[in-house]
Write a structure and sequence with these properties.
The protein has 421 residues and is an alpha/beta fold. It has helices at residues 4-31, 62-67, 69-78, 91-101, 115-125, 139-148, 161-168, 171-179, 189-197, 217-229, 246-257, 274-284, 312-318, 337-341, 356-364, 374-386, 388-404, 408-420; strands at residues 54-58, 83-88, 106-109, 127-133, 152-157, 183-186, 203-205, 236-242, 263-268, 288-290, 303-305, 321-324, 346-348, 368-370. It has 2 domains: 31-208 and 406-420, 3-Deoxy-D-manno-octulosonic-acid transferase, N-terminal domain (Rossmann fold, 3-Layer(aba) Sandwich), CATH 3.40.50; 217-404, Glycogen Phosphorylase B (Rossmann fold, 3-Layer(aba) Sandwich). The longest helix has 28 residues, at 4-31. The radius of gyration is 22 Å and the shape is globular.
């Protein structure tokens, strides 16, 4: 009875939400028509059936897909007799997987967590092993895999305090789902402790997979070219992975800063917002160019709008300093590890609960600095612009920070090897 009621209410919630699920797809398609592509996959209907054994990896969107790169490469190298199935939830995640892996993996959308849909998914692909990235706890999916004998691992697992509270409302259902996982490999001991309190067992800690994502030489070369196209001698600041409302705050900070020679690159987190940010720049009377035009940056240009995909390492490489978005407003923060990997000094806002330990450690070692608001961002930018030696120290600390935390993929492959041999 303790488990029956939560499971019943979860099933009832999914049933009631079904029409809204369809409307949600249509609504999202207004801004991203790709949401209408492969829509049948979201209900467990797929075409080609793999002829080789399948290793299935689920990465929700762009960030998780990029983080999965070293793991996918290791799986491709170690298990050439298997096909890698990479599932996503968002079209941008799927597009990212296409650009990163091409035909080396098969890809599909993970179905919504309806019992009929997830059972179809499991029957169709018959995964030899399932790997869920970060915090993907879907009760019906995990239950279907468990019933079919498919071992499922929660890898690179993280659980913020906020998420732990939300999952606590469905304690019995979440506890049952976590208990059906074959293994849980957490990023940090704090994540492991929170997952354990929710019912996960046999948790191991392997670190954050994002630290093993090294920039490709081509990406670094693109960054050097971008710097050269920007005039070379101009100071460059990148506001990366910005979320709704943050671009305006960054522009407010730049007005306070009043540094006419500075080139700012603004790279929105979501591609569907590129035009929205362009409209904001026009409304503010800011002289800007689009990165997608591929033209040298004019002297009078104040902002380069980063409206391209897959070039974040290049933007960081071209910049003297970076603000990592999702943190000035309460979105939980975006990944600062990519900036650290190329030695770019990092500024972050007060809201970083998605990367609590990473942010704390980066600040402690001098790789990052926290700012509280627009005024703080303006002051921090001025201090870094005026102090080249401080920028150099932060750059060296960022690279050392990145190198010190690598090795997660090796530890994950050891765990995976227990189930695949």
């Amino acid at each position: 009875m303790k488990l029956f009621l939560p499971r019943f209410f979860y099933a009832l919630l999914l049933f009631v939400a079904f029409p809204y699920t369809l409307l949600h797809l249509l609504w999202r398609a207004r801004r991203q028509p790709a949401y209408l592509h492969h829509w049948s996959e979201r209900f467990g209907l797929y075409s080609a059936r793999p002829t080789q054994p399948v290793i299935w990896l689920h990465a929700v969107s762009v960030g998780e897909t990029r983080a999965a790169v070293p793991l996918v490469e290791a799986l491709l190298a170690r298990y050439p007799g298997h096909r890698i199935l990479l599932t996503n939830t968002t079209p941008t995640g799927r597009a990212t997987s296409e650009s990163l892996f091409g035909e080396r993996v098969i890809r599909a959308y993970l179905p919504y967590d309806y019992s009929f849909a997830v059972r179809r998914f499991v029957r169709h692909f018959k995964p030899a092993l399932g790997l869920l990235m970060e915090t993907e706890i879907w009760p019906n999916l995990i239950r279907a895999c468990h019933a079919s004998g498919t071992p499922v691992l929660l890898v690179n697992a993280r659980l913020s305090v906020r998420s732990a509270r939300r999952y606590g409302w469905l304690d019995a259902l979440v506890r049952s789902s976590l208990g059906k996982l074959a293994a849980v490999v957490a990023q940090t001991h704090a994540d492991a402790e929170r997952l354990s309190l929710l019912g996960a067992q046999g948790i191991e800690v392997a670190g954050n997979l994002k630290f093993d994502c090294e920039p490709l030489p081509a990406q670094l070369q693109t960054g050097e070219q971008l710097r050269a196209q920007s005039g070379g001698s101009r100071p460059v600041f990148v506001a990366a992975s910005t979320r709704e409302g943050e671009e305006g705050l960054v522009l407010d900070a730049l007005e306070r800063l009043a540094s006419p020679g500075l080139l700012t690159m603004i790279v929105p987190r979501h591609p569907q917002r590129f035009d929205e940010v362009a409209a904001l720049l026009e409304q503010r009377g800011v002289i800007y160019q689009r990165r997608s035009a591929g033209e040298p940056v004019a002297v009078q240009t104040a902002v380069l709008l980063g409206d391209t995909m897959g070039e974040l390492f290049a933007y960081y490489r071209a910049a003297d300093m970076a603000f990592v978005g999702g943190s000035l407003l309460p979105f939980g923060g975006q990944n600062l590890i990519e900036a650290a990997a190329v030695g770019c000094p990092v500024l972050i806002g007060p809201h970083t609960w998605n990367f609590t330990d990473v942010a704390r450690q980066a600040i402690a070692c001098g790789a990052a600095q926290r700012v509280e608001d627009v005024a703080g961002l303006a002051r921090a930018l001025k201090d870094l612009l005026d102090d080249a030696s401080r920028r150099r120290r932060m750059s060296e600390a960022a690279q050392a920070f990145s190198l010190a935390h690598r090795g997660t993929v090796q530890r994950l492959m050891q765990v995976i090897g227990r189930f695949l041999g």
